[in-house]
Amino acid sequence: MALTDHLSETLVESHINEKAKVTGAQNISTVNSIEVKDVTVSFKTKKGVYTAIKDINLSVKKGEIVSLIGHSGCGKSTLMNTISGMVTPSEGTVTANDNIVKGPGPDRGIVFQNYSLLPWLSVYKNIYEAVDSVLHNKTTSEKKQIVTDALAMVNLLPHKDKLPGQLSGGMKQRVAIARAFAISPKILLLDEPFGALDALTKGSMHIELLKLWNLDNRNKTIVMVTHDIEEAIFLSDRVVVINNGPAATIKEIVDVPLERPRNKKDIVHDPKYMEIHDRLLSLLFDKFSINDIH
Amino acid sequence: MKKIFTLDTLYTILAFLGSLIILGSIWQLVSILTKHEIPGPGPTWTVFKELMAEPFYDRGPNDKGIGNQLISSIGRVFSGFAIGTLIAIPLGLLMGSSKLMMRLFNPIVQILRPVSPLAWFPLGLLAFQAAEGATVFIIAITSLWPTLINTSFGVATIPSDHKNVGKAFGFSKWKYVTKIMLPFALPHIITGLRLSIGVAWLVIVAGEMLSGGVGIGFFVWDSWNGLSLEKILIAILIIGTVGLLLDKVFNAIQSMFAWENK
Predict the structure, then answer these.
(1) Sign of torsion, CA A84 A27 A184 A234?
(2) What is the CATH number of domain A62-88+98-107+185-284?
(3) CB contact under 8 A, A163 and B262
(4) Which residues of A touch B161 (CB under 8 A)?
């Protein structure tokens, strides 16, 4: 584990140095993009206090892709919501980009599970309103250019005047991703972004996401909630397995030291992949066949 | 395709004619049962033609053609409706978006809503010293409730998905109101308006009967005093038709703003 840590640190650092060469600036950024420290989230319900997650500690490095995986209702979305700022931790702090998270911010883009596109606005306007709100200091023509670029990036420019109701699920999610990318966030938070899509669309979306990430020199830190093991392994550098709630904790963090760019066909034959896949299955399931049911 | 379209409209026309025949038959039956004290369709039609010959005559403040009466009523309805709407929509938006406002105003709404317009009438006369003002007042105070309730419902039920977009991308208050709250609430507001205009039209007839002057309600009361039951029946049919048309207008407005079906 130490070796892979060191390797990824070196990779990230070389990226930072490359960027520094390009911008000519001294880039002394902390290597940790997100720090979750002793975070506990509890809610007041009619039946008393419900603790969703407890004593979570997690560090995510800049440019890392991390998946949060676990059974439904385990609290992985809650954990991500503390990073996005939609939820305030009851105990502990979350730091993102060296700032304590107090609420949603322009440095963290969010992609929701239900796309959350405003149904009365066209594709173009949906992205424009987000850009207008976050990048309010830019001129109108700059904003318009950003929207057009974002749409071109996800190949949806021909559909820019359509309403979300006229799009397929995959297209809607691409708009949501374009919207999150358009505000140029340093951190991208995806909450089961492909959960509502069919398996075929999902597969092509994985590659689209990685393509976008690459276009930005792998500078964006991505945290993704999923319950799809194959998706988690294909996309991530590390997979964080969360225990079942309530008061869920981190069960184990599994490294995914597979080289990039990853290939969907080849990866399944890689012995390292199979090892990781097995490990995750053991962590998440206790029954593997009908013989396991007593 | 064209054939199916024509067949469908044929059925619609036939059904409409069918309902007219049923109405006419029941009418005739009632007429016969009351030994023609209530006139049947035939004599009513004769009087109708008379009224239609000069619908806009004006022979003094209490003697006007039925067209004039109708226009006067519609004017009053829209005044009262407009005043009611100006109160209902802002208050509804406020109540829907703030739990405190809802808690403060809801009891008032629940108590005033069931009050009959006729009970408000004396207060209106006192306040406005004139029947005209009083009538507009009772229309406003009675018809504003559906708009108020539907507006606040629309705002209160904005799905968290939409609110999350505003939260996640740091929408300003203004942007939230204009790009999320109002567009979501608009169909509900229009439904409220549609119900309100229906109530307003109901109330005008009652109000005018009490107040006198010019109007379709007054026309009904005046015809009763003049013992012309045909005129009353005609007035009923006209009132019903105008009510239907008003409803259809708001229906069309509703479809104009329905982004769901585009």
Answers:
(1) negative
(2) 3.40.50.300
(3) yes
(4) 112, 114, 116
